[in-house]
Known about the structure:
Helix content: 10-25%
Mean pLDDT: 85
Number of strands: 10
CATH superfamily of the largest domain: Translation factors
Shape: globular
Order of helices and strands: EHEEEHHHEEEEEHEH
CATH architecture of the largest domain: Beta Barrel
Bound molecules: flavin-adenine dinucleotide, iron/sulfur cluster
Amino acid sequence: MTETVIKQHLIDPEICIRCNTCEAICPVGAITHDSRNYVVKADVCNLCMACISPCPTGSIDNWRTVPKIVAYSIEDQLLWDELPAELTEEQLAQAGVAETAVAEVQQAAPSTQPDPSGQETFNSAAFGATLPPWSAAHAYTNLYGPKAAEKTITAKVVGNVRVTEVGATAGADYDTHHIVLDFGSMPFPVLEGQSIAVLPPGLDEHGRAHHARQYSIASPRNGERPGYNNLSLTIKRVLEDHSGKPVRGVASNYMCDLKIGDTVQVIGPFGSSFLMPNHPRSNIVMICTGTGSAPMRAMTEWRRRLRNAAIRKQERSAAGPPQGASAPTGGSDPRSGGAWGH
Ligand SMILES: Cc1cc2nc3c(=O)[nH]c(=O)nc-3n(C[C@H](O)[C@H](O)[C@H](O)COP(=O)(O)OP(=O)(O)OC[C@H]3O[C@@H](n4cnc5c(N)ncnc54)[C@H](O)[C@@H]3O)c2cc1C
Ligand code: SF4
Ligand code: SF4
């Protein structure tokens, strides 16, 4: 008798940024996590693919052909620092798997299995934005990261200001910082609605490098300072966990304590769907709490800069061309901060 073989859905721990998107979206609760890894329960995942496109890093789009009886357990996956290699044909044959069974499972199209209760499961992915607005600019993603040609990009801290009140009324624990990172001469193109991740230095309680923490970009595409290769973040210092127990969040405290001139290892950019439309008549509704306003600051500031540029252009054309000047030849690159047309 041949062993049953499955296409096991796995998450690549090297590039997963622990953003929780997949766990929030999975309609059948197949994804779980500990303080380190996000993992998929092989016996629960029905290969519906709802989690694939929302994942900002692509780490969730990993599959291994394995005999069902030795499918990787949750306990195994939680300990991984990297994905196991695909089993070879010889290894599968040794495990009693027929060649035809392997071919069948590899060709099989993912299908949604009915819920055993007979009820239709709620598919939140059907309501999420997995496609960017049609007029959004093209977003670059994963330019720097464990699987990219460049593993990290070094950013220099050029600004770090506490933006929440200090004192008894504000609460000593409510400490949010506006941090500006400069990428010097290295390319780091971003759009409003994207995020980056920072790699805090040091090791976690298991002696492994801390995993990356993600932060929304709070500045427009042409920089916190227009035309400069920089961006801003809005980071809340985590001093208590979700149950109110005192903790010292690794990355938020590291970032909030940075001094001007310090350097930070960054990966990203991430996110290609939560982008703003560029067509001028688009309506945008913004809802957020706390530092969730960061991307909205980026979006409103970009709109403000566009409007100001348009007003300046109108004023210039009303004033007529300066003596001896040649006619304009068109808009410049929208990422440059100059004049442009959409
Ligand atoms: C897409 C995305 C964008 C994000 N953008 C921002 C942003 O713009 N600004 C920002 O400040 N954060 C943002 N975050 C959250 C950020 O990535 C970190 O999770 C947060 O800073 C905590 O990391 P830490 O290393 O300080 O805490 P950790 O060391 O990872 O956690 C310490 C403990 O605190 C708990 N904890 C973690 N975060 C919180 C919290 N917010 N409140 C209460 N308890 C918490 C953890 O469960 C853990 O028990 C974003 C996350 C995602 C997925
Ligand atoms: S493929 Fe579907 S069932 Fe499997 S983890 Fe992703 S969302 Fe959940
Ligand atoms: S990066 Fe992808 S796999 Fe990792 S937690 Fe986010 S959505 Fe899930």
